[in-house]
Amino acid sequence: MASENQNGDRRHQEVGHKSLLQSDALYQYILETSVYPREPEAMKELREITAKHPWNLMTTSADEGQFLNMLLKLINAKNTMEIGVYTGYSLLATALALPDDGKILAMDINRENYEIGLPVIQKAGVAHKIDFHEGPALPVLDQMIEDEKNHGSFDFVFVDADKDNYINYHKRLLELVRVGGVIAYDNTLWSGSVVAPPDAPMRKYIRYYRDFVLELNKALAADPRIEICQLPVGDGVTLCRRIK
Ligand SMILES: C[S@@+](CC[C@H](N)C(=O)[O-])C[C@H]1O[C@@H](n2cnc3c(N)ncnc32)[C@H](O)[C@@H]1O
């Protein structure tokens, strides 16, 4: 969790980010040396707009945005999906990484927050890649699975929504992602609470979702259909590469 450092520097906290690094100064160093100087103007603008929103704790951090953008380019992703959009920071990082004919099926139960970021996405010239669906993601996945032609059709999926459904998403996404494609689950270290003793003081929502995150991490580690890599970026992100 963010805290004030020796210089009274609270910027880390202001961006609503919960770094897992031990030192806020080190995290700030990463942002200032490697992330902010290379952050596209549109992402900076959206980050600053989002920082003023009351739920800014939910946004993807700038370093994770940079990571996703690089990853998508490395795997030459073209057809992608995002579950959990909020104001669209990770969505914009994705849209900027895809080729001009790339696609993102973006789902969120809340359109209002997506519309906060939409003008920035439009100005960046990438809105044509996005197909936004308002509503819960699970029924959309179920509907897609009914049509064979959607099977194995996605190169990349970013899951950053209701943690109690991650296991349900996983079952479906494995049918929809191609062999060699990647599913990235966000918040898999859940503010570090995955190693906290069960009786440790925790915010209510952290406690509530903690068991689901623990269960997901175990299930992913044991799933022979994927290779995994858990990274301490942002709040922890686990990459799952489908191998069968
Ligand atoms: C952590 S935020 C997403 C952050 C976003 N990726 C970003 O870069 O700012 C989680 C989002 O999941 C959405 N959400 C919650 N339950 C959902 C569901 N069942 N289906 C789709 N979206 C859902 C919430 O409305 C919220 O906007």
Task: Give an account of the 3D structure.
There is one protein chain. The protein is an alpha/beta fold. The protein has a single domain (11-242), classed as 3-Layer(aba) Sandwich (Rossmann fold), CATH 3.40.50.150. Helix content is 42%, strand content 18%. It has helices at 11-14, 24-35, 41-51, 62-74, 89-97, 111-123, 137-146, 166-176, 204-222, and strands at residues 79-83, 103-108, 130-134, 154-159, 177-186, 226-231, 237-242. It has a 7-stranded mixed beta sheet with strand order 3-2-1-4-5-7-6, with helices on both faces. A hairpin with a 5-residue loop joins strand 6 and strand 7. Helix 3 runs antiparallel to helix 6 (111-123), helix 4 (62-74) packs parallel to helix 5 (89-97) and helix 7 (137-146) runs parallel beside helix 8 (166-176). It is globular and about 45 Å long. The chain starts with 10 loop residues before the first helix and ends with a strand. The model is unreliable at 1-17 (pLDDT under 50). The structure holds S-adenosylmethionine. The site of S-adenosylmethionine has 20 residues, from helix 5 and strand 2.
